[in-house]
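Re: the request from the purification team.
They wanted to know what the chain is likely to look like in 3D before they choose a buffer screen. I agreed to run a prediction and write the result into the notebook, where they can find it.
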Amino acid sequence: MIKICCCIPGGSLMPEGEQTVPESPAEQIVSKCRYLLELGYDATECTGGMLSALGAQELDELVRENEKSSLGLVAVNSLFPGDWKLADPDADHTPYLERFRKICSAMERLGVPYAVFGSGGARRILDKPGSLEALRSFLTDAADIARAHGVTILIEPLRRQETNVFVTVPESGDFVREVGHPNLRLLCDAFHMATEETPPLAAARYLDLVDHCHVAEAPNRTPPGSDGGTGYLRAFASELLTGGYDGAVSAECGFKNFREDAKSILAYLKKILVKADTVSVVPVRDLIEEPVFLMPETGVVPATITSAAAPDGTLFPAAEKDGGALVVLTAKKGEKLTLTLGMKNAGNAPRLSSRSDGGQDVTIGGEPFGSYRCDETLPKPFFGPVTDGAGNVFTRPDLHHREHPHQRSVFVAVGDVNGVDCWNETPGHGFVKSEGVRDAQVTASFASFRVKNLWTDGEGNPLLTESTRYTVYAQSDACRALDLEITFRADHGDVTFGRTKEAGPLGIRLRDELRADIGAGRLANSWGGEGEDECWGRSAEWCDYYGEPDGIGPMGVTVFDSEKNERHPTAWHIRSYGLFAANNLYFKGGLTIPAGQSLTYRFRILFRRRPMTREEIADRYVVYTLRPLA
């Protein structure tokens, strides 16, 4: 069973923590630990700075208090000051090891099993030959000291802003495996993992090495459960529960009011550190194979689920997401359903497979859907062509078309980025260079992957970083959704998107048979506009392109604009010749992303093989808005 723990403030070396050891640290340890245990915590945690500051008499008194009634101490963190250089090959490690020996001696007397090796500044690798080897040597020597005192060192992966070594769980876990010392193990910190965009699944993959965990809410290291809590922390809890973790989960965070915050933290951790086996929903609209995110009232959803069963036995594809369940649900408006989570096959599971160009092929229910292509011979990546289960394409299949050759299927582009054209492919244009596919996730109800791209000018000078997540769902080809979450980061200075007609950021080029000028296509938008004259340049929550080409039948593409997007609802650059793009920049003016900041857009694209009334599209938009999945 997982033990719920809390760090007491005082002498922390983390950037947001208290930098000074309080007066009478022994009294602080006793009073704060006793308070936490009285509230109902299973264990407590203090800092190395507090223990190292104790004189002999103070330590004796602390030990006596612990013998009278356990203080519940399970771990000690913040071992070394940031100006100590543990990885300096020219440094004398003797004083470092002596400090650690003193802390371990106190821990042995208090019965504390774990020493948390965070200390990001102290462990930083220096620009000297042999620096990593020096750190490894120090850790090996420290682990020998720890073993002599019945203590285990836990390497804590930290954020890059704190250190340049042991940043990710895989990096740290692989180091622990390689060294193989029985008293050198691993800690997982959900705050650092979330900040570094490490999937919670990484904790599960190294769970055999993990003896302790820290939790706080990203991005500001606030107490767990602050503002309702984040999906990341719930997903982290789900991985621990699914993997059978039975160590402690300790809140290591900033406190506004230690006593009051400790109460709310305990209530929240008790709520999420148990498994849930059901979720309930009352649909606000009729649902037909609609992806909806459902949170259990108590607990988190196990990572192993594949289905959700209605009371009548109907199975729906389901998967754990952010500690809740993402269910592809069919239900009537107002019908209260309690769904039992299980591991049966509900069908239409999406799958991903790697391409030789570094991209991804996507299938749904065993049928092709589309491919993310990042061939280096093309100026920018794209997703497509998008097809139904029978292979009929929704988007332009020709990659080298003479007319608007840059409009390839589903693409991300902007025509004026600091004066550089990253939309067209005329002389002097910019490039979008793939830096790989990351964080691929395949479940019974959805599959997703994230791509990282570097935008450059024609000479290769960087303009911005793009990170886009593509997500598909376990739906039949009557209607399938593709979600895009596009983030632009100004990692290379200010980024200015100019007022340009040649822009998205989302662009779609439809097959010719769906064009409104030479094909069967008809344009419509959410406020009742029809045709290019009433849709082009108009702001609307959604826009639709639908037709019934000869020999193919009903075929439509609908795009939803998220209410989280800047200047929502977006204006649409939608044309009779088959271009379908969201563009605020031309119709509402350009914008600037200041250096170091980011801008995120979210869109849902429906690819459907059946007609939909305006009312049904509106219903789907309401569900998308009220239960956002990102």
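For the purification team: The two ends are 31 Å apart (CA to CA).
Please add any questions underneath this entry.
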